[in-house]
Amino acid sequence: MRALVINCTLKPSPQPSNTEALAATVIAALKGHGVEVDVVRAVDLNLKPGVETDMGDGDDWPGVHEQLLASQILVVASPTWLGRPSSVAQRVLERMDAMLGETDDEGRPVAYNRVAGVLVTGNEDGAHHVISEIGGGLADIGYTIPGQAWTYWHLGPGPGPDFLDDERGHDWSVSTGRAMASNLVHAARALDAMPLPAPPS
């Protein structure tokens, strides 16, 4: 089984990313279940604006699209800015919109029988809003979102320290992330054993 984690931080490599640091704990949990994990830091790529799988010369999205189709599990990881998902996360969801028009050999949307979860960091409130926005978009595309397939970290409303600067709350976030990983893996195995059929015509 393979998972893809798309880190939607605004910080290009090699800058430290709080979102990456929390995602690493979920990645470790997924690997503990025998899952192979690939990671994409979307801001490092040239993801052109648009809602097509390939937006032409220099567009890096087709490679990410291939990774999505090779993965049974997707985790979208985003910081919170102004109580909302990052602009990079929005760009990723917009590019995934093309998957709505793609089907497999049995007529199923390509996101069917794949599971997804959401991870959020930030130093202000809004994590549940970000989870609902990203999770809602992924469900619309066709992903199955298991119960409690998310984790987040923040220290309440207003400015404050970042995940990498403060140990408070880490235990809860990591524990919730382990539950997220377990729920994603077991839901993916259930769908593998009993796949969703194509939508009725």
UniProtKB/TrEMBL annotation:
Gene3D superfamilies assigned to the protein according to its UniProt record, in alphabetical order: 3.40.50.360
Recorded superkingdom: Bacteria
MF-aspect GO terms: oxidoreductase activity
Signal sequence residues: none
InterPro entries named among the record's database cross-references: Flavoprotein-like_sf, FMN_Rdtase-like_dom
Domain NADPH-dependent FMN reductase-like: start-end pairs: 1-130
Protein name, UniProt field: Flavodoxin family protein
Species of origin: Streptomyces tendae
